[in-house]
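Work Package 4 report. The design task specified in the project plan requires that, given a folded chain encoded as structure tokens, an amino acid be chosen for each position. We show below one input record used in the internal validation round.
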């Protein structure tokens, strides 16, 4: 039977139809009826079926590294939390949760911490993602509300992407934009220091200097006023226009580093197109002045009244499946549930009355960075981390690992006990995963969708809400946490939102408070609010806001200097972000060989001038140092970044590439209003890493690398490995067997001791089960071809590449159909393919999820340049 559910990755919140095969596997397709995606999926969503197997799953509680019963584990958790609270007070404990939690999980966690423990020390990893948008929304609108809907993107005449690589990070929204552009000629402007895949459809790319967004949008506000494009009628609903404009007119646009004519072109486009949607994401939020950046954007929409109407408005897109749900349900340390304010005594009294407790927490709790600092300095004695991996994903991650290690008592709830964080915990609780758990999520345009179970919960794993409720009961609050189903929790949450609605709050889903279990089971995607009088729609076109005087507030915001300064010691500014086919710290997406084929190791994108200055060649490995840590990365020379401003992805961990943990390099500077870390502007040094040998390996077994640099990735039937080290093995064959986890099998090899080359393959009954290629320089072999030789009778294995009769497909570009770069380039040249559609017809590439289309466009460009030069 097929089940309609929701993708567990990004904040687009695509509907998925899952068809289990009855043997633990599942077929995945996009849900044509879901309003987020109308049947589309990106490469990550399409590969979900490859991520639900039980490899690496934790199936029973662990206490002190030993298997334990649930009773033992939960009693210990309840007792440790109670003891800390009893001795040191409620603020001595904390929860660090995640946008992977379902709303029902979040609700129980928030109720337990803010209502019953009596502290607001619960924060979510959404703090790292979009808390600056939350703070900006609250300052301007009096509420954290996204005004518009995804349909606005299709109705806009101009879409501006600010600090958002929509093509890779919200691919289905990008596909909707591409389609709109084709149908209506939508103009697209990308504002990003880096030339990303999203630029492939841009009419204009503004590669602004890192962090100069406030200057750019102050310039826009000034240009709006100069062009007399201010909506004076709408301004009746807005405070602060004159002060904001006054500051904006003092802007020094040279701070953006942009060509003045290009800036003017952007301003002219914005003024000329009333239907403008400004989409912004981590490039805006992850900044020490992220909240001011958000308000600089909102100012322009408020001044022109371009908000809350079809085809126009500011649009913060969230990075996680339930980041929005977490904001609504009180997952952030500075908010109560249902957009109620922790500082407001009436709001606190409302929640306390609803939960039947004397008080709720009366002051904001510790935000993520402060929470881990407090764990490190002994102020937090007991910490529960749920579905997130802060040992890798927090800034200054090495210090966070030390803090977790030193904290008196740490519990982790997750799918596996192998994450960098779980390995440091006293107790690890096995959690239900996507496909097994049941509840709701809210996507970036306020649509609440069901995540439904279609697989049995394996072993002794339990849903997060059930774990939290059980601890609440064991701490003495039996009645308050007597939950049996997620539907029961959802109804309670909906009823609380009705109280918030009565206090004048916009987040009101009280229309669901009497939802029957059967209606919850079949709940279709529904945009909030949901009340007796209102369902869905947009906000703020009517000029009614949620501030005390019901007017919007424009903020007088100034361009700030970046907190980390370049110096002779740290001359480069490091930008960080996501790649197309991986998700966060890869605990799920790295299970898919298809996804791992796209970019299989951590890398540093570096401008050619920097590479020349540093004496680097393609494929060299570089060492990065920052004031907080160090990393080793493969260099990828590219003019997509500007000189001095390299980029590195965030995904690799101690499990997949320990020296590639980027957040070790990121300084924990935070925005003063949101507490969001400045993840894209750390200063670093870059130098060539001189290894004595480099290697590439494949194996059917779990490998055991221990070199200075290594990165492993899944391939069909095994693993591939990149290696670099100083110590040259005495005996390559012995080393290969140990590295590849292959103690048996026949060895064939070519060894050249004098030149330091080794090529070794291990065969069982003539079938390749492992191979190692090593030498004194970065290894030039056909990686994807070799990965495909595992499990094959491959007489040419030691050649490291296919014979002349079998062309080398090159690195995989289309993950869905496994089509390599060389195959595509050859087809472009030999078949005269002139556009992406023609490549699709010839090779299928780009015809499933479409996530690779921007890269196909880039390849077409490369091929055309080559033809023109010939
Ligand atoms: Fe999932 Fe991709 Fe949709 Fe995001 S765009 S929700 S990752 S299918």
């Amino acid at each position: 039977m097929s089940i309609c559910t929701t993708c567990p990755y990004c904040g687009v919140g695509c509907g998925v139809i899952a068809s289990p095969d009855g043997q633990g596997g599942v077929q995945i397709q996009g849900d044509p009826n879901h309003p987020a995606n109308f049947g589309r999926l990106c490469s990550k969503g399409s590969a979900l079926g490859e991520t639900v197997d039980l490899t690496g799953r934790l199936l029973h509680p662990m206490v002190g590294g030993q298997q334990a019963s649930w009773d033992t584990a939960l009693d210990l958790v309840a007792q440790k939390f109670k003891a800390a609270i009893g001795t040191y007070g409620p603020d001595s404990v904390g929860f660090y949760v995640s946008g992977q939690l379902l709303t029902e999980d979040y609700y129980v966690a928030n109720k337990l911490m803010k209502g019953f423990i009596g502290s607001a020390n619960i924060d979510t990893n959404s703090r790292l993602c979009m808390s600056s948008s939350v703070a900006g929304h609250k300052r301007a609108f009096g509420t954290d509300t996204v005004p518009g809907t995804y349909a606005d993107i299709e109705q806009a005449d101009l879409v501006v992407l600010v600090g958002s690589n929509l093509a890779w990070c919200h691919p289905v929204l990008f596909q909707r934009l591409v389609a709109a552009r084709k149908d209506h000629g939508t103009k697209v402007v990308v504002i990003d220091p880096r030339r990303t895949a999203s630029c492939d459809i841009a009419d204009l790319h503004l590669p602004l200097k890192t962090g100069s967004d406030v200057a750019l949008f102050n310039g826009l506000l000034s240009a709006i006023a100069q062009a007399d494009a201010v909506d004076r009628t709408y301004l009746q609903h807005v405070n602060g226009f004159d002060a904001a404009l006054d500051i904006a007119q003092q802007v020094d646009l040279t701070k953006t580093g942009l060509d003045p004519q290009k800036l003017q072109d952007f301003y002219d486009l914005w003024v000329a197109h009333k239907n403008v949607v400004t989409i912004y994401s981590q490039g805006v939020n992850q900044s020490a002045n992220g909240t001011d950046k958000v308000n600089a954007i909102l100012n322009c929409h408020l001044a022109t009244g371009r908000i809350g109407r079809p085809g126009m408005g500011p649009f913060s897109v969230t990075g996680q499946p339930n980041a929005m749900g977490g904001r609504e349900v009180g997952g952030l340390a500075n908010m109560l549930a249902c957009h109620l304010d922790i500082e407001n005594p009436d709001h606190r009294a409302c929640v306390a009355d609803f939960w039947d407790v004397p008080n709720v927490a009366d002051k904001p709790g510790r935000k993520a960075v402060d929470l881990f600092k407090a764990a490190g300095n002994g102020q937090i004695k007991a910490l529960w981390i749920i579905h997130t991996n802060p040992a890798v994903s927090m800034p200054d991650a090495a210090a966070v690992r030390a803090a977790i290690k030193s904290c008196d008592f740490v519990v982790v709830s997750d799918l596996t006990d192998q994450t960098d964080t779980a390995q440091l915990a006293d107790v690890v609780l096995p959690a239900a995963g996507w496909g097994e758990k049941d509840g709701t999520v809210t996507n970036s345009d306020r649509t609440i969708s069901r995540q439904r179970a279609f697989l049995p919960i394996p072993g002794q794993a339990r849903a997060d809400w059930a774990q939290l409720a059980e601890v609440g009961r064991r701490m003495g609050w039996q009645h308050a946490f007597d939950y049996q189903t997620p539907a029961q929790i959802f109804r309670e949450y909906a009823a609380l939102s009705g109280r918030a609605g009565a206090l004048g709050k916009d987040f009101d889903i009280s229309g669901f408070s009497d939802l029957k279990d059967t209606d919850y089971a079949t709940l279709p995607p529904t945009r909030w609010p949901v009340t007796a009088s209102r369902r869905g729609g947009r906000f703020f076109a009517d000029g009614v806001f949620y501030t005390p005087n019901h007017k919007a507030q424009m903020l007088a915001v100034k361009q700030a200097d970046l907190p980390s300064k370049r110096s002779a010691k740290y001359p480069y500014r490091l930008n960080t972000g996501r790649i197309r086919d991986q998700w966060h710290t890869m605990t799920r997406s790295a299970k898919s060989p298809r996804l791992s084929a796209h970019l299989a190791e951590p890398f540093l994108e570096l401008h050619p001038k920097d590479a020349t200055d540093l004496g680097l060649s393609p494929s060299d490995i570089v060492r990065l140092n920052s004031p907080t840590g160090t990393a080793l990365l493969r260099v990828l020379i590219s003019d997509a970044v500007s000189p001095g401003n390299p980029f590195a992805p965030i995904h690799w961990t101690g499990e997949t590439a320990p020296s590639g943990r980027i957040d070790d390099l990121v300084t924990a500077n935070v925005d003063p209003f949101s507490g969001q870390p400045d993840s894209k502007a750390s200063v670093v040094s870059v130098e060539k890493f001189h290894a004595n040998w480099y290697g590439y390996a494949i194996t059917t077994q779990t490998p055991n690398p221990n070199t200075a640099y290594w990165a492993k990735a899944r391939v069909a039937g095994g693993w591939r490995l990149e290696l670099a080290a100083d110590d040259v093995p005495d005996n390559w064959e012995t080393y290969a067997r140990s590295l590849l986890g292959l103690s048996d099998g026949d060895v064939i090899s070519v060894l050249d001791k004098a030149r330091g080359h080794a090529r070794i393959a291990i065969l069982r009954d003539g079938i390749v089960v492992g191979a190692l290629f090593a030498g004194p320089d970065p290894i030039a072999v056909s990686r994807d071809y070799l990965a495909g030789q595992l499990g094959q009778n491959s007489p040419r294995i030691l050649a490291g590449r296919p014979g002349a009769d079998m062309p080398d497909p090159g690195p995989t570009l289309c993950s869905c159909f496994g089509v390599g770069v060389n195959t595509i380039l050859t087809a472009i040249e030999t078949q005269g393919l002139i556009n992406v559609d023609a490549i699709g017809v010839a090779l299928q590439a780009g015809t499933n999820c479409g996530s690779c289309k921007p890269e196909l466009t880039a390849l077409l460009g490369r091929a055309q340049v080559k033809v023109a030069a010939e």
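The pocket of iron/sulfur cluster is lined by residues 7, 9-10, 12-14, 37, 41-42, 44-45, 170-172 (CB under 6 Å). Validation will be extended to a larger panel in the next phase.
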